[in-house]
Every structure is written in C-alpha cells, then in structure tokens.
Amino acid sequence: MRVFITGASSGIGEALARYYARQGATLGLVARRSELLQTLAAQLDVPAAIYALDVRDAEALTQATADFIQKYGVPDIVIANAGVSRGTLTESQQDIAAFKAIMEINVLGLVHTFQPFIAGMKQRGSGSLVGIASVAGIRGLPGAGAYSASKAAAIAYLESLRVEMQKIGIVVTTIAPGYIKTPMTDVNTYRMPFLMDAGIAAAKMAKAISAKRRFVVIPWQMGWLARFMRFIPPFLWDWALRNAPKKAHLDWDWL
User: 2-240: which CATH topology?
Assistant: First the structure.
C-alpha cells in the first residue's frame, strides 16, 4: 500500500503517518517543517519520502508527486490533511492576510494535492482521495469566520469532486473531525466536547477510508451534534452563540 499525506509533521497528519506505517505502507510525507518530517521519517520502519513544501505552492506539489510516483508508483491513498486555524475578525484590517492564507491552505491546498495524482489513478482505474474538513464547516462560528468558511468550502468542493471521480473509479472521502487533541486545539482555552486523542482518531479515519465512506464525522458523537446543527434555525443559532468563546487570535509564521 502507498499513502501520500500532507500536513504530516504533527497532529492528525503525523498520527495518520504512524498508523499507516504500522500497516507496512510506503509513505509520502509533506509539510513545511523539514526537521520535523526528517525526525518522523527516521522513526518509521517503512520507506518514507519527505517533501518540505507549502501546499499553496502547486508547482512544488506537482514536483513532489512526480518524484513519489517515479520512486514508488501511483499511491493508493492521497490524504489532503494540511490545514491551519486561527481566530479572525472581519472588522480587523490586519486579519485580511490571515483570511487569505487560511482559504489558500485549507481549500486550494486540497486542489493542489489531488490534481497531480488524478491522471495516474484514472489510468489505473482506482485510488482514494481523502480530504480533511471539519465540523466547523457545517455552521459558521463567531471569531472563526475564515476557518469556518474554508472548511465549508472544502466540504462542498470534496462533494463535487466525489461525483466527478466516481465515473473513473476514484473514491473521494470527506472526513470532518470534531475536536482532536493536536497542537491546533491545544491553544483553545474553552471546553471542547468529545475531545479525542489523535492516534485514536487516525485509526477511525483509516477505517472509514478503507470502507470507502463518502462522508464521516469523527468522533461519532460530533456526528450526531453536526446533524442537529444543520437544522437549527438561524435566529436560534445566533442566540445560542451570542456569548460563545472565540478561537485564539494569534500571529502565525505562515502568513
């Protein structure tokens, strides 16, 4: 089995890499932080090609794709996991750069990751494209407009892609995690219901991918909450979240 994962240096991506390594998979690992990728690859007892790049760079991803295919062949599974989050406020002019970066990484990063692999998967007639979205994409959360919008766009994009790919034998799976314990959620100061360990979440995600699920929320409790969220009238949603805690408004080095 060959698995290509973006955002592999920490959090869900790292947990997925470790899970698939235990299954004996050959890995392609992408992240911006080269040193963390090298450390991770050295700990995995499987072939692992590492690519230090930003998923906003379509050309760099195309080159990484070509290198991986030349070395190991077309992957069986491509997981577009790279993503970022931070608090944003539309009223703040300085947050415009953050809005742009979040949308580019969380949405265009999916396109840049998948596009170079589709031709090879199409020729073979099989393959799985997996996008990591979020429960935050189901309803807009105050103070997280960029993140919620990016994940809503990711969910819609992946649904479109799923319908397109079904004619050529490529499976598309959308995974919408709730709260998973990662460096991204460690900065949250508010209560996170059903918080799940990243390793446990990775195993559940891999099971969903293997089962060729179309859309799955992890953990399952958040799935039921997400179903409920879809049907709350706007006036009730606004009232319920009027005093909701907001995501940390931090500076990031990826802007």
Answer: Rossmann fold (3.40.50)
